Model the fold of this input.
Amino acid sequence: MNTLATDLLQKHIETLVDDPAIWETLISDDILWELAYAPSIGHPAQLSGREEVVRHVTWFRGAVEGFRFFDLAIHPLADPAGAVGEVEAEGIIKSTGRVYRQKYVVFLRVVEGKIVFIREYFDPVRAAQAMDLPIPV
Done:
């Protein structure tokens, strides 16, 4: 079952890295992006508003090379304004030259045709290893 939320989640994954101009049209000015496990590797727990989100995503795009998502599975919720996605990704961390492989789970909510909320889960140990950071305990 396709909903606006499932469509926007698909477009989010397709354009986040590969087409920043299109991706920025998908998000609300007051977007809230929660990164549940990011603080364990020194990154913010949440990004609030377009400026913070775009700044962080721009940093990420610059930190990785050849980053790609694959094996995307999208699950609509009973509420058509929400969707959940599971996706794998890989790329090279430029500063270390290490391969970064990750599995993400993304919860997304849409209001008035724009993404207003993302909650992202990923394995911080994989990120720490790729970026040569201390392993979170």
Q: What stands out?
A: Helices lie at 4-15, 20-26, 49-63, 124-131.
